[in-house]
Amino acid sequence: MNEKTIQLLDRTFRFCVNILKFLNSLPDDHIYRSVKLQIAKSSGSIGANYEEAQGASSKKDFNHKIGISYREARESVYWLRVLHELYQDDIYKESFEKHIQEANELKKIFASIKLSSKG
């Protein structure tokens, strides 16, 4: 496995862990639980599918898993934006912006991998 792959595996793992820790720091409101569960799932799925892609049985399988990572990153951006609207306190603003930026960067990375692996 090359260094870039290892770094991206770690980055997606860290993203998931950081999101879970952040969600845990938010006030618990039963109305927002379903949204928090969605972002918890999508943030974890980015790295899980990238990890699975490393053991892909074919190029088609690899591209499929990368495509899922891309879509889950997009979904993570969406749910983070929803939560940001729900938790508008200034104390969360910087954290939301940081997490949304990272999800957007991961989205771009996986889009790039998918495009380059088709050729």
Gap between N and C termini, in Å?
20 Å
Strand content: under 5%
Envelope shape = elongated
Estimate nothing, just give the exact number of structural domains: 1
CATH topology: de novo design (two linked rop proteins)
Order of helices and strands: HHHH
Corresponding CATH architecture: Up-down Bundle
Which regions are unreliable across 5 or more consecutive residues at pLDDT < 50?
none
Quick structural gist:
The protein has helices at 3-25, 33-53, 59-86, 90-118. The protein has one domain (3-118): 23S rRNA-intervening sequence (de novo design (two linked rop proteins), Up-down Bundle), CATH 1.20.1440.60. By secondary structure, the protein is mainly alpha-helical.
Question: What's the helix and strand layout?
Answer:
Blueprint: H1 3-25, H2 33-53, H3 59-86, H4 90-118
Helix pairs in contact: 1-2, 1-4, 2-3, 3-4
